[in-house]
Design a protein that fits this description.
GO terms for molecular function: phospholipid binding. InterPro entries: C2_dom, C2_domain_sf, SYT14/14L/16. Belongs to the synaptotagmin family. This protein is mainly β. It is 8% helix and 44% strand. The two termini are 21 Å apart. Strand 3 and strand 4 form a beta hairpin.
């Protein structure tokens, strides 16, 4: 399972770019996340800090977005998932929500954390704005570097 806790302090972190390019000319959607791993407790904390340049592709108004976090094992099977609350009508939403996953130290190199950003359009309809993955199956070099920094930072976000 995963616990959500609201973060009150501003923390510095690396920035990761989404794997989905904007369909319009202009800025690419980005998401800012902070990672922390405590080897003693086996707690992996992922703070979803904020997003920027989120667009509603179906309409000319800012999207209603949330971020879904999914932790996968080395076989690609879902171990845990959770999501942020919805931010309504914000192209640059601030989430400041932290999620905690239990991951044993020996598993840390074998898991993948996927962050998917969705635009919630109506009761049952949603569309993916973009996604990024960190860990074993990182979606890029920047994401892999962020994961490596987290593993080497000894409890610092």
């Amino acid at each position: 399972g995963c616990d959500s806790q609201m973060s009150v302090s501003e923390m510095s972190c690396s920035e990761s770019t989404s794997s989905c390019q904007s369909l319009e000319h202009g800025s690419v959607p980005e998401i800012l996340i902070g990672l922390l791993y405590n080897a003693t407790t086996g707690r992996l904390s992922a703070e979803v800090i904020k997003g920027s340049h989120f667009k509603n592709l179906a309409a000319n108004r800012p999207p209603n977005t949330y971020v879904k976090l999914t932790l996968l094992n080395s076989m690609g099977q879902e171990m845990s998932k959770c999501k942020t609350s919805i931010r309504r009508g914000q192209p640059n939403p601030v989430y400041k929500e932290t999620f905690v996953f239990q991951v044993a130290l020996f598993q840390l190199s074998d898991v993948t954390l996927i962050l998917s950003v969705y635009n919630k359009r109506s009761m049952k309809r949603k569309e993916m704005i973009g996604w990024v993955s960190l860990g074993l199956n990182s979606s890029g070099e920047e994401e892999l570097n962020h994961w490596t920094e987290m593993k080497e930072s000894k409890g610092q976000q």
